[in-house]
Amino acid sequence: MQKILSQRLKQCRKEKGLTQGQVAIYCDITEKTYQNYELMTREPKLEILIKIADLFDVSLDYLVGRTSIK
Predict the structure, then answer these.
(1) Which of 4, 11, 44, 69 is disulfide-compatible with 48, CB 3.0–4.6 A?
(2) What local confidence, expressed as pLDDT, does residue 1 receive?
(3) What does the alpha-carbon distance between residue 3 and residue 17 come to, in Å, rounded to a whole number?
(4) Which residues contact 39 (CB under 8 A, 6 or more apart)?
(5) 65 in the Ramachandran plot: left (φ > 0), alpha (ψ -120 to 50) or beta?
(6) Full 3-state SS string of 1-70
């Protein structure tokens, strides 16, 4: 799950044309914290993952690799 989450966070962010800093501001976390999510040195809490899914307009299942349907 970790590898696919990392890849999908990066992919979705780039598709939306957002910087890591912009995503961090939306989620009310530091940019470094968000970078750690993309690097998978840290896993996001569920409430943050929900915010990210909402921002990227995808499902939680998509982000964690349970489906390939956004």
Answers:
(1) 44
(2) 59
(3) 21
(4) 6
(5) left
(6) CHHHHHHHHHHHHHHCCCCHHHHHHHHCCCHHHHHHHHHCCCCCCHHHHHHHHHHHCCCHHHHCCCCCCC
State pLDDT tens for residues 22-68: 999 999 999 999 999 999 999 999 999 999 999 999 999 999 999 99
CATH number at residue 47: 1.10.260.40
pLDDT value of residue 2: 74
At 43 the pLDDT is 92
Domain extent for 46: 2-63
Distances (CA, A) of 33 to 66, 67, 68: 24, 25, 26
Number of domains into which the chain is organized: 1
Stated pTM of the model: 0.91
